[in-house]
Specification:
Number of domains: 1
CATH architecture: Alpha-Beta Complex
Order of helices and strands: HHEEEEHEEH
Structural class: alpha+beta
Strand content: 15-25%
Number of strands: 6
């Protein structure tokens, strides 16, 4: 891929198959939990907007990440996230061990509420 991705599909196409699969699953779960949210690329990563930035996701060489873009939401769910590698508004996970869909839905709905929609 030449240059920066302009769509989530372009971003995913540049990843390894395992990361593509994990992030596509995450994308579908986010979309189901936030059907009014708009997909976009923000700061070079796939993201969703609804009354402001909602959540994002991405991949690095060593892991995948779910960006809550909110330390408040992450802090409010710290007990549920105790087994995950987290920092500020980020949850890191391995492509072969994706986040549970129920947890993702809960976090996305918390972010929608936080954004005031």
């Amino acid at each position: 891929m030449a240059g920066k991705p302009e769509t989530i599909d372009e971003y995913l196409a540049a990843l390894s198959e395992d990361k593509q699969a994990a992030l596509e699953k995450l994308r579908k779960t986010i979309r189901a939990a936030a059907p009014k949210a708009e997909e976009c690329i923000s700061y070079g990563i796939p993201a969703f907007r609804q009354n402001g930035m909602l959540v994002g996701f991405g991949a690095t060489a060593n892991h995948c990440a779910f960006y809550l873009m909110s330390a408040t939401t992450l802090g409010a769910h710290k007990e549920e996230l105790a087994g995950y590698d987290t920092s500020k508004g980020t949850i890191r996970f391995r492509a072969d061990d994706p986040l549970p869909a129920a947890l993702v839905r809960k976090l996305v709905k918390a972010r929608i509420a936080e954004n005031g929609s």
